[in-house]
C-alpha cells in the first residue's frame, strides 16, 4: 500500500535535515505504529506524505499503491486515497462542518471520475457515520471544529475519515489531549474502518492508544530514521522502559 | 434655489484662492438644473451656503488622507457601458418586498410597485418636494447638517443642495415587507445625486434593501431618524463587477431603545467611499455598521469611514469591517467612536480586518476612540493578514482543490461581517451570491 524508501527531508526555510533516510512499507490491511521521542521526525513524516508546504525532499521516494506521492498536490494525494488525521485539527469559522464534509467528499469523487453524492445520499451517510462516533446534529451544523472540545475535534477527524473512505490513513498523535473515554470512542471508530484494503499508520508517543488500536508492526523512530521495528510487544517495552533503553541498545548494535 | 454660489477650498500656500477643484464644482453647479424644490428649498439653500463656507477637501485634509476626493468632483464620470451591467442583480430577487425603482437617479413609477404598504408612507422625493408643507421639508438635510461636525462632509452637503430625487419613507408600524430601492440606468454616463429620507416613528420596524447600479457615478445620502424603540435594518449591495465611482453617506440618529443596523456588501468598483455617521442620542440605543468587501485589481479603491457618537446612556455600537483584497486593490477603513461626557455604560466595539491575497494589495486603517466618560467599555482591533496556510493545507488534505479551498477560507474570513445581517434568509442569500462570485472569479 504505502512504500517509503530512503526518504530524506529538510526544512525549506532553514538548513535543517529532519528525516535522514526513512524506509518503511505498510502492506494493505495492516496497521503500523510509529513511536519515538519528541523531535524524532514523526510528525514531519506525516506532513511530507500528505504534501504540506515548507519541506524539501532531498532524497528518496514515497509511493501509494505505486503512485508517486511526492509529485502530487495535497488534494491529489487525498483523491488517491491518503488521509491524515491532524494532531491539531484546524478551526474554520463560518464554514459549516456539513458543507465542508460534503465539499470534500464530492471533490474527491469528482477527481476520481465518480458521480457526486446527492444531498439526500450524503445526508443519510453522514448521519449514520456520525451516530457511530457519538457526533450529534448540532456538531454537524457548527462551523468546522469551532468551539469543539479536544475530544470532539478528534472524533470529527475520524468522521471525516469515515466519510472519505481513504485507503491509507495516517493518524498523527490522535490520542493527544484525549481522556480515556474519548480515546476509546476514537479507537472504536478507527477499528470499525479496518479492512483488508485499507492500511493505517498510527503515530503516537504512548503505548496506551495501541491497547485499543492493536498494530501489526511497531516502528521506533529516532533522529529521522526508523531504528527498530517489531511486533506490538515493542510498544509495551517502550511503555515500561522508556526510549532510552531501546535507543542505547540500537546504538550499541 | 440661488444661483451657484462661489465655492472655496481652504487656502493652500502658493495655490490660487479658487482652486481647480472649486472651479470644477462651480462649473458642475452651473450645469446642474436647479430642482423644482418647494418643501426642501430652504434646506437646499442652506446646504449650498454651508458648502461655500466650508469648501472642498484640500490635499492636506486629514479626513481625506487615504482617498483622493477628486473623482467625486470631476466634471463628468467615465461612462460605464450599459451592457457591462445589464439586467437587475439576482440578489433580493426572491425576497417578497415593495420595490422602488430609480432610473438614472429618477423615480420610475411604472417600474415600481404600488407605493402602498401598511404602516409605511412612501413617496418619491421629487413628488414630496412639490408639496410646500410636506414633513420632508423639516427632515431633509437635518441629519446631514448635524453630521458636518466635527468632521466636514462636503459631498453630502453638495448632495443635499442638488439631489434630484430619492425615497421619502415614514414608518409608523411594523412593515410587513422589506422596502427595496433598486437602481437602474438608461444613460451610460449617468451622474446621479440621490437623497433618501427615512423617519421611523416610535416602535416602527423596517427592513430597507438597496441594490443595483445607481450610475457611472453616484452620490447617495440616506438620512435615517429613529424614534424611541424603532428598528431599521439596512442591507445594501451596490452592483458588482463594474468600475463605478460612488460617495455614499448614511446619517443616522437613534433615539432611546431604538436600533439601526446597516450592512453593505461591496464588490469591486473603482473609487468608493461610504461614510456612516450615526449618533446614539437616546439611552439604550443600538447602532451596528458592517461591511463585507471584495476588491480585485489595482483600480479598486474602497473606503469605509465611520463616525459613531455615543450621547445617551448604555448605548451599544458595533463596527465590523472585513475586506478581501487582491491584485493591487486598496481598502481603507477610518472608524471612530466618540463617547460624549455623560454617555456612561457605553459599549463600543470596532473591528476592521483585511485579508490580503497577494503582496500587491494594501489596507489602510485608522481606528480612533475619543472618550469623555469614565465608565465605558470600548474596544477596537485591526488586523491585516494573508490566508492561513495551515487551514488551506487542512482543506486540501481532505481533497478540496486549492481554488475551492481559497473560496471557503475567504467566506470564512467574511463570516463575522455577514453575521451582522440578522435575517437568516437574507444572510444565506448574500452568502450564496458571494460564493458564486468568488467561484467565478477564482476560475477567471
Automatic annotation (TrEMBL), chain A:
Cleaved signal peptide residues: none
PROSITE patterns recorded: ABC_TRANSPORTER_1, ABC_TRANSPORTER_2
Gene Ontology terms for molecular function: ATP binding; ATP hydrolysis activity
Family of this protein: Belongs to the ABC transporter superfamily. Ycf16 family.
Protein name: Fe-S cluster assembly ATP-binding protein
Keywords: ATP-binding, Nucleotide-binding
Residues spanning the membrane: none
Superkingdom field: Bacteria
TrEMBL record, chain B:
Region (Disordered): 1-22
Domain SUF system FeS cluster assembly SufBD core: 193-413
InterPro entries named among the record's database cross-references: Fe-S_cluster_assembly_SufBD, SUF_FeS_clus_asmbl_SufBD_core, SUF_FeS_clus_asmbl_SufBD_sf
Pfam family, one: SUFBD_core
An individual GO BP term: iron-sulfur cluster assembly
Protein's name in the database: Fe-S cluster assembly protein SufD
Gene source species: Paracoccus alkenifer
